[in-house]
Amino acid sequence: MSEVLLTDGAMVTVRQLTAADHDQVVALHKAMPDEDRYLRFFSMSVPPIDIFVTKVLDENAGVGAFDGHVLLGMAAYVVIQGSAPVTADVALVVAHQVQHHGIGTLLLEHLGSLARSHGVQRFTADVLPGNWRMLRVFSDMGLAVSTRPNFDVIKVDIDLVPGEGYLDAVAVRERVAATASLQPLFCPDSVTVIGAGRKPESIGHAVLSNILAGGFTGTVTAVNPHAHELLGVPCYPSVSAIPNAPELAVICVPARSVADVAAECGQEGVKALLVISSGLSTDPEQARRLLETVRHYGMRMVGPNCLGVVNSEVQLDASFAAGGLTVGDIGVVTQSGGIAIAVLEQLRRLDLGVSTLVSTGDKYDVSGNDLLHWWESDTRTKMAVLYMESFGNPRKFSRLARHLARSKPVLAIRAGSTEAGQRAAASHTAATATPTVLREALFRQAGVLAVDHLSELTGTIAVLSRQPLPKGNRVAVISNAGGAGVLAADACAQNGLEVAALSERTQRELKSVLPGLASVHNPVDTTAVVADEVFNQALRIMLADEKVDAMIAIAAPTALGDPAGAIAAETNKPLIAVRLDQGNAVDWLNGLPCFADPGAAAIAVGLAAERAAWLSRPAGHTPDLPAIDANLARQVIRDRLAADANGGWLEPEEVVTLLRAFGLPVLGEVFAPDVETALAAQSQFDAPVAMKAVAAGLLHKSRGGGVRLGLAGAADVRAAFEEFADRFGTALHGVVVQLMVPPGRELLIGVTSDPTFGPLVVFGLGGVDTDMLNDRTARLVPVTDVDADEMLRSIRSAPALFTSDVDKEMVRDVLLRVARLAELLPEVAELDINPLVVGRDGGIVVDARVRVEPVPYVDPYLRRLR
Asked: Which residues form the N-acetyltransferase domain (predicted)?
């Protein structure tokens, strides 16, 4: 069961239909007006539908949209027996009085998700030519739809594979609905504060005071049974006593009373709640009642346990933060009230402000994803700032953030970056998948700029607000203090920037204006005795260099002068100032962002360059890969889970079948349970072989002493087998015998699946280099062709790795195939290809392990509230 928003922001419940809904389904069909009945049944009469309804309900193949207990519409499918691909007839009925609210499209989205979970691959329907509304519903879904005339009807076929077009269409529909539902919360025309006390130190009093001081454009009331007026605002004993129900209620009462107050608000027609009160998370019953009440009455809610909401469009400061309303164009969402206060203070110090600030607190309802929807539609918001301690739906967040970041910078403060919570892992790939690695992959692919400290956030905001993006990552540094320039150059190199090599012309011009002792190589040291006008002239010379994309100018005051005032220029390149005697970490100097620390300046410039590079990056696509038999791979997994419901590590022959089904070049092998079988296998290969122990608990064969190479005859094979038997005892199940492969570079490609983030694909050096060098990179699925190319470039050893002796295209192909495997087979919990041995003309998977486990079907993009 899911609560879902319609296009006008109203809330309905969508759930699977059961036998208990039979009478309502039949009544829905019988209540259809004549025109709807004709378009649905091609006749004015109602055919016997009991058989159809019973079949749908018995097969759990229908979903309904409900307003309370009233059925508004239903969608259902019936599988066509023997169809390949698996196809089902689809039917849709929406009550006439609620049509044109998006219910039909919503039902088809949920029905399609249900059908995919049952293995249905395609819907089909017969539609009358005059039923243009139904044809439009099908076409607007975003799925691949084909139509063709079939006698007096139009045959419609719908491919249920959710491609990019479908996911984009769902996101647009969700954004329209979310924005409409959030309007009473962020832009209400009336607000009441429930629990506003007389004492200035009470939270309710502080919130009311802020609303009034901010100049809220709407009507303000308060609820306090012991007062008739407070701060010049009329008070009422209860919400029900207010003459006109407010759109937004701010609740500041003790936790034990919140659910009851929320229920009264819902009964009186309040549309949104802001719950400042804390303590509900320690009282599960009250928390449950609050969320059920919010859903029952179709209200949106921020909180509980939050600082509040600020929206400068209507001059609403419904928070207990100090300092007053700061109007600006920066959107902020944070789970922490303390972080929200700190961000507001930092922005205020820079004369910057917020368009919207939301402290989500325990986020029972409104979350960061809702704010991404809001800011996408809000033309006043030019930049988004996020502080999120957890992700409710990171895969949806990734799509939303990636779309928003194309038009507005999205910044995130990293939270929980330590590995204290990292789970112990037994395989190389799983050990890579720490929470930090998952989050960094998410941010990188979505174009989110991540910072570790509030000062870094403020500095980056300052640079992005007042400076153009650099066209590249080449930075020039000028200073009147050589040491500071060196620090800046080091910081640039540490933050993905290149210290630009100045052209010979630039160096000549610098020599002509600077003192003889000055250094004209980047970083340029003008010496401490240079005059202001000379410093500025040198700065302009460097900015004119075509090899320079951005500029950092550093001023250190001395008894001989201070060139800070000379740091100014009209340029289309970012120019960042550093003033070493500056009190604030970030400030303004001649309208330029000015830092107290050259390292902080380099961090901000590095993030600006990262954004510019991400914006210029092609969107990429998941390429069509030939020779993939996903059905064979799924059968391997089904067979294993049938044998063991908990899953586990696949047997070697199962691994080979699974990987070969995805077109991966796997080295042939023979499993030998005893020495005689091993001898026969070596004899059959008639060449030197490798022999690897298969033993309980032996995950890393080489490290555990379970690998012997270059066994050229029977004596070698027998000796190796006996050695394994002595080493592993009764844990030894047998050995795997493989041909020796030609030498090449050993690489690792793996997968680990996180229940929240989904599958993560890891690439890096393999073999003995895996742990020693820890040179890896990772991306979340789906992995596009552009992602794959970035992965190949981004490991530290890439320049030395991909020479003429390593087939880069082959590695890329394997990487994309493994990513597709992870995307299509969610039951694969871990996969390690280590090593993938690659030479000049191809490569081979020498060793691989796969662990599977049962997973429930999850559709992360399905429209539904938390």
From this structure: 12-173
Write down the pLDDT at residue 742: 84
Q: How many other CB atoms sit within 10 Å of the CB of residue 291? A: 20
Angle formed by the axes of helices 435-446 and 394-405, to 10°?
30
Q: Which of 562, 574, 386, 384 is nearest to 470 (CA)?
A: 574
Query: Helix 337-349 crosses helix 454-466 at what angle (to 10 degrees)?
Result: 40
Closest CA to 506 of 461, 543, 462: 543
CA atoms within 13 Å, Cβ hemisphere of 54: 4
Please report, as a single letter, which amino acid is at residue 127: V
Name the residue with tokens 């075509």.
Answer: 546
Tell me how far apart the alpha carbons of residues 665 and 426 are, in angstroms, rounded to a whole number.
Answer: 25
How far apart, in whole angstroms, are the C-alpha atoms of residue 659 and residue 828?
12
**CATH H-level, domain 470-616: superfamily:** Succinyl-CoA synthetase domains (3.40.50.261)
H or E element, residue 498: strand 498-499
d(CA 558, CA 556): 6
Query: Quick check: helix, strand or coil at residue 251?
Result: strand
Write phi, then psi, for 404 (nearest 5 degrees).
-65, -40
Burial of 581 (0-12, 13-18, 19+ CB in 10 A): exposed
Q: Whole-angstrom distance between the N-terminal and C-terminal Cα of the chain?
A: 11
SS3 content of the chain, % helix, strand, coil (to 5): 40, 25, 35
The token pair that represents 213 in the structure block:
């001081």
Q: Could you tell me if 411 and 436 are in contact, meaning their C-beta atoms sit under 8 angstroms apart? A: no
The β-bridge relationship of strands 11-16 and 62-67 is antiparallel
Q: Average pLDDT of 31-52? A: 72
- CA proximity to 262, closest of 219, 296, 221, 228: 296
β-strand pairing of 758-765 with 745-754: antiparallel
Inter-residue contact 575 to 567 (CB < 8 Å): yes
**Cβ contacts of residue 508 below 8 Å, gap of 6+?**
none
The pLDDT tens digits for 391-439 are 888 999 999 999 999 999 999 998 765 443 333 333 445 555 567 888 9
What are the extents of the domains in the chain?
Answer: 2-161, 470-616, 668-740
8-18 in b/e form (b: 16+ CB < 10 A) is: ebbbbbbeebe
Q: What is the 3-state secondary structure (H, E, C) of 697-763?
A: CCCCCCCCCCEEEEECCHHHHHHHHHHHHHHHHHHEEEEEEEECCCCCEEEEEEEEEECCCEEEEEE
Eight-class DSSP state of 776:
E
304: cis peptide before it, omega within 30°?
Answer: yes
Q: Is 231 exposed, middle or buried (0-12, 13-18, 19+ CB in 10 A)?
A: middle
Residue 836 bridge partners (DSSP): 747, 845
Q: How far apart are CA 863 and CA 181, in angstroms?
A: 14
Q: CATH assignment of 2-161, given 2.60.40.1930, 3.40.630.30, 3.50.50.60, 3.40.50.790?
A: 3.40.630.30
The per-residue pLDDT for range 798-850, each reduced to its tens digit, is 988 888 789 999 999 999 999 999 999 999 999 999 989 999 889 999 889 99
Cα 634 from Cα 639, distance rounded (Å) = 9
Measured in whole angstroms, the distance separating CA 781 from the mean position of its chain's CA atoms is 11
CATH superfamily of 668-740: ATP-grasp fold, A domain (3.30.1490.20)
* Burial 536-570, CB ≥16 within 10 A → b, else e: bbbbbbbbebeebbbbbbbbbbeeebbbbebbbbe
**Angle subtended at Cα 190 by Cα 185 and Cα 191, rounded to the nearest 5 degrees:** 70
Q: Indicate the pairing of strand 842-845 with strand 828-839.
A: antiparallel
CA angle 242, 244, 250 (to 5 degrees): 65
